[in-house]
């Protein structure tokens, strides 16, 4: 290979030029391999946008603002020196202060029924059926009123059911509960639920 290149003074210049040429070839091949475009900002891993913005909570509903169809969007800020493509496909290097994308989070549909009011009505006026009238069940409310809360047994059962958030508003919406308050989440088992078999010693 040294014979192909003209030798410089002392005969070692050709080897040096050949080495430089070889390094340039490797650099060109290496650059060609890493020319894939950066990922979309929505496809970043969790550690690449460490602090997603906390949702702004509406005081009247205690849910994230602009909650529609059980979904709200929060701002996500990619970490400094992360390169990704925004929703327009423009490649961008972030400093940690710009919004990279909006992440969807789950929220509840509420229509003005307060959990605190429902529990208070069930506790103090449940024997008159006020809790069922408030939640939109007028027939059950009238039945409880006429039977004095099924002689107190129905009032106690309704108080337990409302306190455990099993009985909710009749329109299918959720209670207004403080966003960081005592919310219950129902867990269900379906055919896709993973079940770990119990092993005994």
Q: Give the proportion of residues in helices.
A: 25-40%
C-alpha geometry: elongated
Class from secondary-structure proportions: alpha+beta
Sheet with most strands: strand arrangement: 1-4
> Ranges with pLDDT <50 over ≥5 residues?
29-33
The main sheet comes to: 2 strands, antiparallel
Q: Radius of gyration, Cα only, in angstroms? A: 33 Å
Tell me about this structure.
The protein is α+β, with helices and mostly antiparallel strands and 201 residues long. Among the domains are: 67 residues, no CATH class; 65 residues, no CATH class. 31% of the residues lie in helices and 13% in strands. A two-stranded antiparallel sheet has the order 1-4. Strands 2-3 form a two-stranded antiparallel sheet. Strands 5-6 form a two-stranded parallel sheet. A hairpin with a 5-residue loop joins strand 2 and strand 3. Helix 2 packs antiparallel against helix 6. The longest helix is centred in the first third of the chain and has 21 residues. The N and C termini lie far apart (71 Å). About 2% of the residues have low confidence.
Describe this protein with a few key phrases:
elongated, two-stranded antiparallel sheet, 6 strands, two-stranded antiparallel ribbon, alpha+beta, single chain, 6 helices, 201 residues
In a few lines, what is going on in this structure?
Keywords: Glycoprotein, Membrane, Signal, Transmembrane, Transmembrane helix. The chain has helices at residues 13-33, 115-125, 130-135, 138-146, 148-151, 153-163; strands at 71-76, 83-85, 91-93, 101-106, 110-114, 174-176.
């Amino acid at each position: 290979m040294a014979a192909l290149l003209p030798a410089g003074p002392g005969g070692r210049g050709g080897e040096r030029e050949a080495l430089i040429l070889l390094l340039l070839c490797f650099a060109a091949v290496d650059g060609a391999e890493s020319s894939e475009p950066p990922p979309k900002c929505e496809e970043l891993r969790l550690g690449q946008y460490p602090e997603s913005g906390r949702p702004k909570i509406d005081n009247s509903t205690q849910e994230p603002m602009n909650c529609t169809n059980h979904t709200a969007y929060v701002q996500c800020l990619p970490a400094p020196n992360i390169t990704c493509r925004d929703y327009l496909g423009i490649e961008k290097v972030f400093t940690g202060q710009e919004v990279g994308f909006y992440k969807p989070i789950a929220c509840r549909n509420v229509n003005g029924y307060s959990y605190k009011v429902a529990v208070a009505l069930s506790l103090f006026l449940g024997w008159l059926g006020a809790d069922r009238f408030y939640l939109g069940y007028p027939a059950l409310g009238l039945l409880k009123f006429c039977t004095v809360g099924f002689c107190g047994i129905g009032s106690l059962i309704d108080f337990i059911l409302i306190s455990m958030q099993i009985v909710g508003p009749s329109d299918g919406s959720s209670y207004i509960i403080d966003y960081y308050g005592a919310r219950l989440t129902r867990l269900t088992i379906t055919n896709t639920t993973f079940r770990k078999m119990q092993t005994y010693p």
